[in-house]
Amino acid sequence: MKIKLKFTFFLFLIFNLGVISPSIAQLIGTKPITGFTTASDIQQLRSHSDTKGFIEIGDAYAKARGVTIFSAMNALNNRAKKKLLEEAAIRGATHVWIENRLPDDAGMFGRLVSYHAVLYRHPDVQMDLMTVKQAFLDNDLRSSSRMVINRNAFGAKYTIAENVSLIQVNPETDIFEKNGRIFVEIKIRKSPVEVVSSKKEYEVIALDESSIMLSEELLENKKYAAHLFRLAKK
User: Fold this and answer.
1) How many CB atoms lie within 10 A of CB 180?
2) Residue 165 contacts residue 188 (beta carbons within 8 Å)
3) How far is 140 from 209, CA to CA, in rounded Å?
4) pLDDT in tens, 182-211
5) CA dist., res. 87 & res. 226, Å (int)
6) Spacing of C-alpha 70 from chain mean position
7) Which among 164, 128, 158 is positioned nearest to 145, based on CA atoms?
């Protein structure tokens, strides 16, 4: 079921990397927003039967490559698993089930460790659709920080809202539930006179009385972002 809401929504483009701040700390674990599980707290399921009753988010992949045959396999394994858990956090997971881990001694071409996993969310942290709807009705959203993971990059990148560019979003949007997950579909116009608008879909992965976090797929099966917003009463 889709619910149409009318509200003024502001999304910021974030350009510059910054030092770790209280906003960034909310993304990496010092003061987490309710419902968000940090990479260090993601739990690994030991059997597929343990996934019963969990909400499936989707597949995830991670790899780490050493440029020589002397690259330590343990270090490569740690790097690959760290990237996997960072992606899991950004996409709103609480648990992972690792289907396959592949260590590969590639001879003169170096070494490679790769992971394939399925991401899951525990039903206890899933939000209620009407609660999310009310949060959008009562508040404006102010950009705070974001975390981005690229499967081909070294690891997650953290950004804070400095030197930003403002994008005003079309005030009509849809909030809907699909397979136990809550999504927000927003029509974006870069200027008031623009006729054609583009649509962007975000998943609501965390919400409390002061903040909301949205997950976005930036590049299909490759790059993901978690956006942290402050709730400001209208």
Assistant:
1) 12
2) no
3) 13
4) 998 876 555 555 555 567 889 999 999 888
5) 10
6) 34
7) 158
pTM of this prediction exceeds 0.85: no
* Backbone φ and ψ of 151, nearest 5°: -60, -25
Rounded Cα gap, residues 106 and 104, in angstroms: 6
Identity of the amino acid at 123: P
Q: How confident is the model at residue 34 (pLDDT cuts 50, 70, 90)?
A: confident
Side-chain-side CA neighbours of 163 within 13 Å: the count stands at 5
72 forms beta bridges with none
Residues in CB range of 211: below 8 A, 6 or more apart: 26, 33, 144, 228, 229, 230, 231
Q: If you compute the radius of gyration of the chain from its CA atoms, what whole number of angstroms results?
A: 19
Residue 5 has pLDDT above 60, yes or no: no
Contacting residues for 163 by C-beta, under 8 A, at least 6 apart: 15, 16
Confidence of residue 145 (pLDDT cuts 50, 70, 90): confident
Residue 200 structure tokens: 């962007």
Asked if 227 and 202 count as a contact pair (C-beta separation under 8 A), the reply is: yes
Task: Give the residue from 8, 10, 14 showing the smallest Cα distance to 225.
Answer: 14
Q: What is the pLDDT of residues 65-107, one digit of tens each?
A: 776 665 677 888 888 999 999 999 999 999 999 998 887 655 5
